[in-house]
Amino acid sequence: MGEFSDKQKKYLKDLLGDLNSSLNNKIHQLETSITAKLEDVRSEFEEKVRIYEGRIKELEHINGKLRKELNFIDKKQKKNKLVVHGLDPEVGNIEEKVIDIARNSLQVELNSSDINDIYKVGKGAKKPVIVELISYRKKCQILKGANKLKGTSIFLSPDLSPEERAQHKMLVNHMNEARNRGKQAKIQGKTLIIEGQTITIQQLEKQKTADEPKNFSENLIHPGNKGRGPVTRSTLK
Fold first, then answer.
1. The whole model's pTM is what?
2. Taking the mean position of all CA atoms in its chain, how far away is CA 10?
3. Where is the composition biased (Basic and acidic residues) (predicted)?
4. Cα separations in angstroms, 161 against 16, 55, 82, 166, 173
């Protein structure tokens, strides 16, 4: 087969050019179409994300309200209740024993008519006993004299909600930490008092950080100590 003529070469060149141009146009159209579809998918996805985020925030708000309401109901139900720990499991009539403790050990007049309900909870041989009283004042009178049971196997405590128990545990932990550092510390209501300075639960929760799990209550009293490591007895002299 002989060589192509100039006319044939030109024809082939023009044909290849047309094919190349057509192919480029098709590719461009395809890219444009894919880009548009991807943009539609992205926009649709982002819209769904916004909807879900809004729903999540709405549910978090509802959950927060429900938790507050449940906590309020729980506190209200526990308002007149106290817990008796360490009662001998062999005690026959629990109510009579509680009345006897109140009258003879705490010097608080208590009658059956003052008790709305009484029952054991939890596990173990010496199960705690929940005492629900008719009067909140009577509950306060009994708890006020609870220190008179010191030295016995019996001790009293308020019937706390899970949130209150967690807060009380936090206060007790930091009170013990402060005492271990040689500080005078005590719990008063829902606050911790160290060396005469009052620290609230909110302050403890706000100050707490992941890298300072043990001495942040000390930082609330001496902010300048932050980041210098644990406080020792020698540094407190």
1. 0.53
2. 81
3. 205-215
4. 84, 30, 12, 9, 18
